[in-house]
Amino acid sequence: MAEQYIVGVGAVIASLLGFLFLYCNSLIRFRGLSKLKRAASMEFPKGNSVNKTGNSEGVGTTDIIIVGAGVAGAALAYSLGKDGRRVRMIERDLNMPNRIVGELLYPGGYIKLIELGLEDCVDEIDAQQFLGYTLYKDGKETLVSYPLEKFQSHISGRTSHNGRFVQRLRIKAASLHNVTLEQGTVTSLIEDNGIVKGVHYKNKSGQVLTAYAPLTIVCDGCFSNLRRSLCYPKVDIPSYLVGLTLTNCNLPKKNYGAIILGHPSPIILYPVSSTEIRCMVDVPSEKVPSVSNGEMACYLKTQVAPKVLPELYNSFMSAIEKKGNIRIMPAKIMAAAPHLTPGALLIGDALNMRHAITGGGMTVALSDVVILRDLLRPLHDLSDAFTISKYLESFYTLRKPMSSTINILANVLQKVFSASSNPAMENLQHTFLGYLRLGGVFSYGISAMLSGLCPRPLSLAFHFFSLAIYGVGRLLLPFPSPKRLWDGAKFLWVASSILLPYIYSEGIRQMFFPLTVPAYYRTPPKKGPKRNFMH
Fold it and tell me: Are 403 and 367 a contacting pair, CB within 8 Å?
C-alpha cells in the first residue's frame, strides 16, 4: 500500500515539474538519410598512404593535420575530406586495435554516424543491434529499453569489436584522394610565437619528420601525450574495468545487455559479435588484484562468479581459465578544460573522458565530429590562427548538451551501481531501480538520455529532482517520523554529493545557460578568398 502512495505522490509532483521541462524530453527526430555503398575491402588503399623520403613537408600542402586515427580522428578526417579539405592523419599504430572499451555505440551515436555518411562502417564486422539493458538486483529484473518507437527500424545501438569498427573508419577516410594516412608517433607540436604550426613525429623507421598545416586537431585518445599543451588535465581513476570474452553462451534477452548489481563489483555483459559476449567487471581502484600472480583469477572465481547469471556461469569460468583472456583497463574520468591555443584544437578522449561503464565515449566523439565539421564548413581560409581559434571556441559550448548529459550519467551511475557498506548508498541504488520501474516518463526519460537521443542537461535536472522526490517519499511514507526525516535528509545529501560535483566540473553556465556564454554567438570569419569545397 505504501508503495502505491509513493508512486502516486511521486508521479503527481514529478508530472507538474515535467510541464516546466517538457521540451527537454522531446527526442531528436530522425530524418531518413540514404545509405552509402558498402566498402569492399579491409585493406588500406595503397594510393593514399604516405611514403616520405625527406625530413619535412612543405607549408601549404595540407589544410588540417589530425593526430590520431581512432573513432574521432578517422571520422573527422573523412568528413573534412568530403568537404574538400586536404587532410593529413598521423596514427601511431595502423594495426587493428585490440581494446576492451569503445565497443558500444548508442542509437544517438548511430544517428551521428549516418549524418557523417559512415553508417556502412558497422556493416560486415558482425556488429550486433543493441536495444538496451536488463538490470539485475536481489533476484529482481528491471528492463531499460531505448525509446526507438519513433525511428526507422534500422535505428538502434550497435555493439562490436572496437578494432573492427575503427579499421573500417580508417579505410573509409583513406579512400578519399585528399586524405593521407601515415603511421607515425607525434612527439610534439611545432609552436611559433604562441601559434601551433604543425607537428614533429617519428615514422615507422624512427626517422624524425615534421608536418605543417594552418590547423592541427589532436585526438590521440585517453593516453594522449599532447593534451598538456592544450588543456588543464585532471584525470581521476575511480575504478578499473576487468574484461573477459565469453563464448558458447547467450544473454537472457536477445539484443539486450545485462547489468548485475551486487557485492563486491557490478558486472556488465553485452554481445560484441554473434558468438561472443563481453563481460566487464568494475573493480574499485584501491582493490585491484594482480593478474600476473593469479590473484585476479581467484577474485573472479570466488567473488564475482557466484553473482553471474546461471546460464553464463560455465562460460564465465572457462573464460577465466583461458590464457591471456583477462584484461584490465583503467576507467578514467576527465572533464574538458581546454585553453585556447591558436592553430590547434583538442577533441575526443584526449579532451574529455567519462567512466566507461555505460559505454558513451564513441557517441560523444561522433557528436563532437559533427559539430566541428559544421563549424569548419563555412571557413574558406584557415591562415589567421588567432581569428580561427576565437571562432572555434564555440565548439566547447556547442558540444555540452550531448557531452555533459552522457558524462554525468556515466559518472553518477558508476557510483550508484558500485557496492557500498553505506546504507544511504544502498538506498540510493534501490531508489534508482524503483524509479525505473515506475515506467512512463520516468523510465522513458532516463533511457532517452542513456541512448544519446535526448542530450538535454535540463532533462537531467528534471529527473534528478523527480528521483529525489521519489526517494524521500519512499523513506517518509507511511508516516514521517524523526528517524525517517533524518534518513530522507541523508538521502538528499548523498545524492547531491554525487551529482553536483560533476555538474560543476562540466560547467553550470555552459550546461544550463549556454546563451550567456559569449563564444556561443561567434560567427564565421569572412577573411580570405573563397575556395571551391565539395559538398
Answer: yes
Helix (H, G, I), strand (E, B) or coil at 393: coil
Beta strand pairing status for 179-192 and 87-91? Answer: parallel
Nearest to 331 by CA among 387, 388, 393, 284: 284
Residues of the chain within CATH 3.50.50.60 domain(s) are 64-128+154-235+334-400+517-521
Pick the CATH number of 64-128+154-235+334-400+517-521 from 3.40.190.120, 3.30.499.10, 3.40.50.2300, 3.50.50.60: 3.50.50.60
The per-residue pLDDT for 60 is 65
Measuring CA to CA, which residue among 193, 522, 532 is closest to residue 343? 193
pLDDT tens readout for residues 341-364: 999 999 999 999 999 999 999 999
Gyration radius of the chain over CA positions: 24
CA distances to 13, 96, 170, 515 from 500, in Å: 22, 39, 39, 21
At 456 the three-state DSSP class reads coil
The amino acid occupying position 357 is I
CA distance 382 to 215: 7
Which CATH architecture fits 237-333? 2-Layer Sandwich (3.30)
Closest CA relative to residue 113, chosen from 72, 84, 80, 149: 72
SS3 368: helix
How many of the other CB atoms lie within 10 Å of CB of 207? 13
Q: What is the length of the chain?
A: 535
CB proximity list for 196: less than 8 A, separation 6 or greater: 189, 190, 216, 341, 342, 343, 344, 385
The answer to whether residue 30 scores a pLDDT higher than 80 is no
Distance CA 46, CA 48 (A): 5
- CB within 8 Å of 471: residues ≥ 6 apart: 427, 428, 431, 435, 488, 491, 492, 495
Q: Could you give the count of Cα atoms lying within 13 Å of 276 in the half-sphere of its Cβ?
A: 17
pLDDT at 532 over 80: no
Predicted confidence band of residue 185 (pLDDT cuts 50, 70, 90) = very high
Report which residue type is found at 67.
Answer: V
Q: What is the DSSP letter of 230?
A: T
**Residue written as cell 615534421?**
210
DSSP string, 457-518: HHHHHHHHHHHHHHHHHHHH-S---HHHHHHHHHHHHHHHHHHHHHHHHH-HHHHH-GGGSG
Q: How confident is the model at residue 57 (pLDDT cuts 50, 70, 90)?
A: low
Structure-block grid coordinates of residue 7: 508512486
What residue spans in the chain does CATH classification 3.30.70 cover?
237-333
- How far is it, in rounded angstroms, from Cα 214 to Cα 66? 12
Cell numbers linked to 365: 566523439
Residue 214 CA to residue 160 CA, distance in Å, equals 36
The answer, yes or no, to whether residue 166 has pLDDT greater than 80, is: yes
Nearest to 245 by CA among 281, 205, 289: 281
